[in-house]
Amino acid sequence: MSRDKYHPRHAETDPEAYYEQAFQAYPRPNLVKCISYLIKKISKPTIIYPNSQNEDEYFSQIAEQTPIITTFSHGGKKNMHDPISAIGATVGNQYLKERIPNTKTWAAIPYLTHPKYGPIIERLGAIPVIRSGDFERFGLSSNESITSALIDRSVQHLQTPGNTLDIFPAGTKGGTKLREGVGMVLEQLELATVIPIALSSDTQSTSEIPKNLRIAFGEPIFAESGMASKDYVEHIDYNLNLATVDLKTLESST
């Protein structure tokens, strides 16, 4: 199956049309159901919330139809470890699980152009993100209009009540410094909630499949009028780090 439709040269030619097509992707229920079963069977996820809250207490802070951005840590070394872990966080939580039909996920362009992973990622509602290094990788010049088109379409998606956008803000496997894309989206929204989620497993450095998957939700962040992009990024980074500390506490107790 050709993955040419996602090649960045098409975005360079017409960024708006490129992302208009990309945002037509949606999670396929049968694929999500299959992966959910495998995660429960193999990964055996454990989910914790801050301050010893349960799921209901945590989500009672968030209005039912508020647009949500989930921001995941990206510590896995193998291509599919973190995407699978993120699905585990989503399907293991009733509130996010109900939103799956209206969820889009930012995914680095090499995933979507990959002959093996591409068709799977696409059917999970993936939206191609062309990072600065990807332009050189694909032999193209950096183009700010492509980034602007991605941000604009993402904002439009989140202006619909009940919609969700999943993001790995570090932008690369094993990354720790967050990129500004998520903040660029948030600063254009009047209503949205960010849910930071830290991920780890016993196999995050060695396998595509997470085993003994551990998931820690961080304190939610609520959009504020006038907050700048960099301030959102700093806030997300701080809350993700706190969730990571909770993960380490969980690891040491098991």
Could you describe the 3D structure shown?
- By secondary structure, this protein is α/β, with parallel strands linked by helices.
- The protein has one domain: Glycerol-3-phosphate (1)-acyltransferase (3-Layer(aba) Sandwich), CATH 3.40.1130.10.
- Helices cover 44% and strands 14% of the residues.
- The chain is built from twelve helices and eight strands.
- Strands 1, 2, 3, 4, 5, 6, 7 and 8 form an eight-stranded mixed β-sheet that branches.
- The longest helix has 25 residues.
- It is globular and about 50 Å long.
- The termini are far apart.
Produce a short descriptive summary.
This protein is of the alpha/beta class. 44% of the residues lie in helices and 14% in strands. Strands 1, 2, 3, 4, 5, 6, 7 and 8 form an eight-stranded mixed β-sheet that branches.
What is the strand and helix layout of this fold?
Layout: H1 8-13, H2 15-22, H3 29-43, E1 46-48, H4 55-59, E2 68-72, H5 81-91, H6 94-97, E3 103-108, H7 109-113, H8 118-122, E4 126-129, H9 132-137, H10 144-158, E5 164-167, H11 181-186, E6 193-200, E7 214-217, E8 221-222, H12 229-253
Parallel strand pairs: 1-7, 2-5, 2-6, 3-4, 3-5
Antiparallel strand pairs: 6-7, 6-8
Features:
globular; alpha/beta; Glycerol-3-phosphate (1)-acyltransferase
